[in-house]
Design a protein that fits this description.
Order of helices and strands: HEEHHHEHHHEHEEEEE
Distance between the termini: 75 Å
Number of domains: 1
Largest sheet: 7 strands, mixed
CATH superfamily: FAS1 domain
CATH topology: FAS1 domain
Shape: globular
CATH class: Mainly Beta
Number of strands: 9
CATH architecture: Roll
Structural class: alpha+beta
Strand order of the largest sheet: 4-3-9-8-7-6-5
Radius of gyration: 20 Å
Strand content: 25-35%
């Protein structure tokens, strides 16, 4: 009887562990106070993030909504509102003007890489490149990734600015988002 009871208890614990693991694998990542759902696309999720209202406004002004809702996959390095606030005063207001659409589009597409690069993929590239690797952005210009310690990757743009990734691997229906603390600038 004790053996049967132990078997039942062990089976219950294993089932509970398996149920917990299944629930955890289906959980969502929080960004900007909102859940990011893997079943939604990049734009649908970004619209809900309180930390990315400036990015969303810029994407709309540049006419990139349809592109970022496309099939992809895309890797988007998404600057927060605080990242945009680090730019010189008036920069964002100037960039979203219709006459500056080409410049804004160039900057925003510099934050996008074709393909889905999760942290593990970036780490493989870094290992192969002895700590650095080059990614080609949708803008056509290179962006560099660099090791900054274990599981800590930084981005370096064409002007030498460095961005830190604060949140990795936010899964999207059409790719992945990494949240960054600095707006990347092409050369």
């Amino acid at each position: 009887m004790k053996t049967l009871l132990r078997t039942v208890i062990c089976a219950s614990l294993l089932l509970s562990t398996a149920s917990m693991a299944a629930m955890m694998s289906q959980s969502t990542t929080m960004v900007g106070g909102a859940e990011m759902y893997p079943s939604k696309n990049i734009v649908e999720n970004a619209l809900n993030s309180k930390d990315h209202t400036t990015l969303v406004a810029a994407v709309k002004a540049a006419g990139l909504v349809d592109t970022l809702q496309g099939k992809g996959p895309f890797t988007v390095f998404a600057p927060t509102n605080a990242a945009f606030a680090k730019l010189p005063a008036g920069t964002v207001d100037n960039l979203v003007k219709p006459e500056n659409k080409a410049t804004l589009t160039s900057i925003l597409t510099y934050h996008v890489v074709a393909g889905k690069y999760e942290m593990k993929d970036l780490e493989k590239l870094l290992k192969k490149g002895n700590g650095t690797a080059e990614l080609k952005t949708v803008n056509g210009q290179p962006l560099w990734i660099m090791n900054n310690g274990p599981h800590n990757i930084q981005l370096k743009d064409g002007k030498g600015n460095v961005a830190n990734i604060s949140t990795y691997d936010v899964q999207q229906k059409n790719g992945v988002i990494d949240v960054i603390d600095t707006v990347l600038m092409p050369k």
